[in-house]
Design brief:
Elements lengths: L2 H12 L8 E5 L3 H12 L7 H4 E5 L4 H8 L9 E7 L5 H12 L5 E7 L1 H4 L7 E5 L5 H12 L4 E2 L1 H11 L3 H14 L3 E2 L1 H7 L4 H13 L3 H13 L4 H20 L5 H8 L3 H11 L4 H19 L5 H14 L1
Parallel strand pairs: 1-4, 1-5, 2-3, 3-4, 6-7
Helix pairs in contact: 1-2, 7-8, 7-9, 8-10, 11-12, 11-13, 11-15, 12-17, 13-15, 13-16, 13-17, 14-15, 16-17
Length: 324
């Protein structure tokens, strides 16, 4: 199920319309959504007895200890919640132990498997309910944003869209910005409020710059540069970021056969960020990306060796990239 469907599922279970799954596999590239999904599943435990009825395990604790906790009857409450965090694939014996539990689960325990994507891919079959905490599409993001502002505030659609754009749609940052916007605004949040309080994400601006260069749109490229200058970001930091992004875009174009999660593991990025990377890299040929990477690498060396000044390097670099 999707993250946005989880709350209704829990309500349906508590109302007797559905039953809890033997195990919930919580995974995805938005860490905020993962933490909120786990918190929602744990919320079925009576908070007065949470210390007694919420257990947390990792693979180092052993699957046997996790299963023992799952079969332990809750203390002064209706449910226990047991979370097992997995960052590496399980050994076959551990998989078998989980399968045995799934075949005969406790009716009083909510079992949550907090997994990295490659681990989640190995936990399939009847009894495993996947809770997808991938980056949300914009309509679902707006729904979550509206809930976070309620009941004290409302947000205009244009303001929500601007908030999503400036944060690249990552809920971990959106949640923090909403706290600031609630303090800044009385009741209604408008687009100008978001523009005044939410800083542009540097990654977003770098991609916007690379996208403008791919289209040979000099006006937009120079407008993005102006944003960097106004924010007081050093030229060399931007050059380094440009080199890093162009290098990763080249890898993306050279490895089109890899999925987003696979490429993300190769580049040290999350799947949602890889999606955005590929959206921009698609505007370049492999040869043009290679030229950009080589040029920016040479520019880094020239600045560090004193052949060129940092202040002039960035503007010259963008103008040069536009000609490739």
């Amino acid at each position: 199920m999707k993250y946005v469907e989880l709350e209704q599922h829990i309500n349906d279970v508590l109302a007797g319309r559905e039953r809890f799954a033997p195990a919930y596999v919580v995974c995805g590239d938005d860490d905020y959504l993962r933490s909120r999904a786990i918190a929602a599943l744990r919320s079925v435990v009576d908070e007065d007895f949470a210390d007694l009825n919420i257990s947390r395990f990792s693979a180092d604790d052993g699957i046997a200890a996790t299963v023992d906790a799952l079969y332990t009857y809750p203390v002064f409450g209706e449910y226990r919640a047991v979370t097992l965090s997995l960052s590496q694939k399980l050994a076959e014996a551990d998989k078998d132990a989980l399968k045995a539990y799934i075949a005969s689960p406790s009716e009083t325990s909510v079992f949550v498997l907090d997994c990295d994507p490659e681990v989640a891919a190995t936990l399939k079959g009847k009894g495993y309910e996947r809770v997808d905490c991938a980056k949300l599409p914009e309509p679902e993001l707006r729904e979550v944003i509206n809930k976070l502002f309620a009941p004290t505030h409302t947000i205009d659609k244009e303001a929500a869209d601007e908030l999503i754009r400036r944060t690249q749609g990552y809920m971990s940052r959106i949640a923090g910005e909403i706290v600031k916007l609630k303090d800044f605004c009385d009741g209604r949040v408008r687009r100008e409020d978001v523009s005044a309080t939410v800083a542009e994400d540097m990654d977003f601006q770098i991609y916007a710059l690379a996208d403008a260069v791919s289209k040979k749109d000099a006006d937009t490229a120079l407008a993005v540069l102006d944003v960097f200058y106004k924010n007081g970001i050093r030229s060399m930091r931007i050059v380094n970021q440009l080199y890093d992004k162009y290098r990763k875009m080249l890898h993306a174009e050279l490895n089109k056969g890899l999925g987003n999660d696979e490429l993300g593991a190769l580049l040290g990025m999350k799947g949602g960020a890889v999606y955005h990377l590929r959206q921009v890299s698609g505007g370049y040929s492999q040869m043009r990306l290679k030229k950009c990477v080589d040029y920016l690498h040479g520019l880094q060396y020239d600045v560090l060796s004193g052949r060129r000044t940092e202040n002039s390097a960035l503007g010259e670099a963008v103008l040069e990239l536009l000609t490739f």
